[in-house]
Amino acid sequence: MEYIYNEKQVVINFSENFCKNEVEVLNSDCFSEVFTKYIDNLYKTENQAFLPLLDLMPRKKVAKILIRLFKLLFCLSFKDLEATSNEIEKSVLEKRYKLYDLVQDFYNYWRRIERYSVVLSRATKDGVESSSFIQAQSEFNNIVLSTYRTISEKLYGEKFPIYRQLPAGVNASLLLSKNEWMPKESKYAFLAKCEAIEQIVIRPPFISYSAKNKRTGTYPEVFTNPIEKVKDKFEPKSYYCYAAKVGSALAYIYFHRDYMAHGITIGNLFEFVPLNACKNKKPDLLYIFGADYEGESEFYYDKEDDIYVGIAPHNSSIDYFGYMKKMLLTLYNTKMIDQGNLPIHGACVKITMKDGTKKNIVIMGDSGAGKSESLEALSEMAGDNISAQLTIFDDMGTFKIENDEVIAYGTEIGAFVRLDDMTSGYAYREMDRAIFMNPDKVNSRLVIPCATYGQIMAGSKVDMYLYANNYDEECESEVEFYNNADEAKKIFIRGARRAKGTTQEVGMTESFFANPFGPVQREEQTRVIIDKVFKKLFENNIPVGVLHTRLAVPGMEHDGPALAAKKLFELIESK
Q1: What does the alpha-carbon distance between residue 497 and residue 468 come to, in Å, rounded to a whole number?
Q2: Do both 465 and 535 map to the same domain?
Q3: Backbone dihedral angles phi then psi of residue 299, each to the nearest 5 degrees
Q4: Model confidence over 180-198: pLDDT tens digits?
Q5: What is the DSSP code string of 9-25?
Q6: pLDDT digit string (tens) for 400-427?
Q7: Contact at 8 Å (CB) between 275 and 251?
Q8: What is the pTM of this model?
Q9: Distance in angstroms (rounded) separating the CA atoms of residues 249 and 332
Q10: Distance of CA 234 to the CA centre of its chain
Q11: Using an 8 Å Cβ cutoff, are 473 and 372 in contact?
Q12: Across the strands, what pairs with 449?
């Protein structure tokens, strides 16, 4: 394929055909299709700003006539173009400033589309070699900018006084290759024909919009392999494989190209694994996102091959990054529980004081409990009083008992942050690295890298373990500690919170151990591990308590986490 286009996104195959100059852009089928769709939308929406201009031409020929005029503007001055044009073209050129406005509007239309390119390691003579993969994205951006500027300036009548170097080409580009990790007789052999991602280039700011902006439900475990549902209808050319480290596990994530934004966003959240490092290696986790089947998202443990398998159907109900992320966490957490480790839905931060003292604080709670918000408030409030603050995990981690200590490990190298409850400047500070999702909607999110894989997997001794209470309006202190393990376990296992609109839930809710992604599906096994971990924490005199974030208390969305952070910092300084 040279390109795939729908109204939401365009995927251009630079290996098949790469536009090397402005005329090739205007001559391309992709430009013609996108511009024709734009003109159709003007008619469909009855755009009164441009319909008088369009009415000067036969409706079925509007796009063709205007593209011809754009091409002629590259070799003729506007005056010469007027002199050589036919009657219809002259009537259009008489409205040169309205035509100029249409060019600006189309340029904005193009830039609102999510634009991606792919480059195959096996490039053709008309395409891009993999060695020039990064350069190709910059060249294409410059060619598109030049095309727009040349046409605009000739219609405008003079050079622009100010030039803005906007990302006009593609938002991101993928270098693709093969990873045939399974033998031909394997039940997973049909996946071998998919292209695997070797490199990704992102041009920030990267902003995507999805059909959904919140997640619903959990993932049930099934006991027949869901691979059997999808393998006969699987179209390899429609999927890309991203190899990632989810905690200590190797994961292969196959996503349909219709969900390209979610597939690329994984790179900000999970450690990328180069193809040469996973050649001939089977994964611990396998996820097919956007598979062709009727049904719900589900997972399965393949004991024969020791692979945790997840699938999600191709429909608008899963068009939200939370569905990509949470299934991977469910698969990983289930694996951890089977190994006798305890998944923690929360945040862990390593704080280094000015005197060199280090404290590892873990705050547990379900979505919207105020974990991230309290840690961000702590960072802002403490300022120079803390010499360093490192996020070990900001959604999901794992407790392991090692050398008679409870040790925390991370799962992700990034954070999936809800912007609504962050300070107003947070998004701007992170704009150069973050991937933004639905920024103008409730529950808008950004995904930002915040630690290296080595840092999250180094193992951090737990120095304080708190449950994030976002619902109690009154409390004696923002931080309260428990005297024994049984008292503490009741609160943590209950997993209560007041929903904040991050999922479909409303009002007060409860979830076993505040973690619907593994512990709920393996409750009996998890309870045994909880007993061991809490016993060890209290044996070692590790403070275990509750942090009153009050994030869901009306009027306390910002003050609640700030007060909690202030009290938390006082305790860190004193201990």
Answers
A1: 8
A2: yes
A3: -140, 165
A4: 898 888 999 999 999 999 9
A5: EEEEETTT----SHHHH
A6: 999 999 999 999 999 888 777 666 566 6
A7: no
A8: 0.91
A9: 7
A10: 24
A11: no
A12: 414
Catalogue the E-assigned strands of 279-339. 285-291, 298-302, 307-313
Spatial separation of the C-alpha atoms in residues 440 and 210, rounded to whole Å: 12
Considering the domain architecture, whether residues 330 and 188 belong to the same structural domain is answered as yes
DSSP assignment letter at 271: E
Domain boundary among 288, 314, 338: 338
User: Which range, 55-59, 216-220, 371-375, is most confident?
Assistant: 55-59
3-state per-residue secondary structure call for 394-455:
CCEEEEEEECCEEEEEECCCEEEEEHHHCCCCHHHHCCCCCEEECCCCCCCEEEEECCCHHH
Could you tell me the strand order of the sheet in which 435-437 lies?
A: 206-208, 435-437, 445-449, 414-418
End-to-end, the C-alpha distance of the chain in Å comes to 62
- Angle formed at CA 443 by CA 437 and CA 449, multiple of 5 degrees: 50
Q: What is the pLDDT of residues 212-266, one digit of tens each?
A: 988 888 899 999 999 999 999 999 999 999 999 999 999 999 999 999 999 999 9
Residue 466 lies in domain: 342-413+450-574
Q: Is the pLDDT of residue 51 over 80?
A: yes
pLDDT at residue number 161: 86
42-80 exposure pattern, b = at least 16 Cβ within 10 A, e = fewer: beeeeeeebeebbebbeeeebbebbbebbebbeebebee
Q: Which two tokens stand for residue 469?
A: 């209470």
- pLDDT of 504 > 80? The answer is no
Tokens 């950004």 belong to which residue? 446
CATH number, domain at 329?
Answer: 3.40.449
User: Which amino acid is it at 2?
Assistant: E
Measure the CA–CA gap between 237 and 292, rounded to whole angstroms.
13
Partnered with residue 200 across adjacent β-strands are: 174
**Is the pLDDT score of 44 beyond 90?**
yes
Q: Residue 463: CB partners within 8 Å, gap ≥ 6?
A: 359, 360, 361, 542, 543, 575
With CA atoms as reference, report the closest residue to 560 among 443, 498, 471. 471
d(CA 314, CA 295): 10
**Residue 385's domain is classified under what CATH number?**
3.90.228.20
Shared domain check, 321 and 297? yes
Does 397 have pLDDT greater than 70? Answer: yes
Q: How many CB atoms lie within 10 A of CB 493?
A: 18
Residue ending a domain, among 297, 315, 338, is 338
Q: How many secondary structure helices (H) and strands (E) does the chain include?
A: 17, 26
